[in-house]
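Aim 2 progress update. The chain analyzed this quarter is reproduced below.
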Amino acid sequence: MNLSHVTLCLQSEVCRLQKGYGYFMRLSELTTYKDIIIQCHDNPDADSLASGFALYSYFKEKDIPCRFVYSGKNQITKSNLVLMMKELEIPISYVKEIDAVDLLITVDCQCGAGNTTLLNGASHVAVIDHHQTINDSFELSTIKSNYGSCSTIVWQMLQEEGFPVNSHPDIATALYYGLYMDTSQLSEIYHPADKDMRDSLEYNQTTIFRLIHSNISLNELQLAGYALTNFLYSDTYRFSIIMTNPCDPNILGVISDFALQVDTIDTCVVYNRLGKDYKLSIRSCVKEIRANELAWYLTEGIGSGGGHINKSGGFIFAKDFLRLQPDGDMNSYLYHKMEEYYNSYDLIYAKDYTADLTSLKSYLKRNIPIGVVITSELLEENTPILVRTLEGDLQTTVSDSLYIMIDIQGEVYPIHKDKFESSYKFIDGAPNIHTDYLPTIKNTINGRTYVLNKHIHTCVALGTTHIYAKELQRTCKVFTSRDESKYMLGKPGDYLAVRSDDLHDVYVIERKIFFKTYEENR
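Predicted structure tokens:
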């Protein structure tokens, strides 16, 4: 069978995105512009330098006049970035304004974000970024906020155009280092595309080694030492607040990484003044706290924040902050806001959870066509495999009884043959799947990868699959029995669900998905 219906779903999604939400563009679309400026965010980091450099190299190879720039209040001084620019010959320049240009591409950032100086003079603007969308009116855009680095997005776009990245060692090395730095030394890689790039790049190991060991200067070491001796600490919640003297904003991350090595610190916020405003670096080393969510919480209404699960950043505008805290005491604001955050959610560990069924209603799963893969149709029994999905990698072994379900949003989970047969039936036609990344299976013995779109069967629920569920009134973090390492986030209005045949199978269903997939069991 084929996935013509999946293709139509994805095309429909692209059409929706084109009508006011931006869309996933191709680099070849941008070659029609007569001249281009690529801008990365103020206080560039390794990921922004790498992704901008790769784009610059692509357009130069197409003989399109192109410049690579950054702006803001500070020029690059951080030692590893200075070395990166020198070793890889990255032609970036600092500007305060630009002349008229046909196309401005912001990379690893978005126009209007707090970390990006607005450069006027462009007839057209395009955005390539991996942070949360802050504006849905971009003329041209590729924004994938679940990617670990912008370097990965640019690498994918270059792959689509047939650009031989590995034939350019400086580009390959830059992209690898961009991913390395933006994912805490590759420890925060979750999206399969990040893993695909990591596994394929042929980079200069000597250069990477030098960059990794050139992170701070002696002066910055002294500054970090002073900051680390002056901090606020909560015994109750095990978080710290650290203020630093003015410095390269990237040093905040170095300090927060170091603070997190203290055995009694689970989360920390390091900040300093950046002009009149404030720059924040946020870290977490516990699975119950995601640094990016904490960044959004701390900056909501007074700035912007985001990043990754274990590390993130934020920006707070002084004028907005003073409305909330007239005395200007940032230490006090952050401390009390952190306490407020810790009291704003409930935690559920599915394996230990006992559901109060009297507070839940019964629902049946609707007969929506979804996908299922029978692993033994791809490979011989007992073959060790790695299933790469949006949710992460699943390592398992092929058997006649191992099926892999693919739900309407591309969610993937294993299911035993007996459980499948008691809950689903096969049907003709194509499944109703909306996702921009179909999962793959990798034979871990010979490394061969199988894209599952060629092996998907279609199935529907028998009507016997039913759950107990209730609408959430408070934010809830659920660690499921299938994956105890990371939580599903439920917001007020979403639904907490419990399978009727397994009361420890507890999970969250987004409100917009819940009523599409379930109906009340009357």
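The chain has a mean pLDDT of 87. The first strand starts at residue 36 and ends at 40. These observations will guide the mutagenesis experiments scheduled for the next reporting period.
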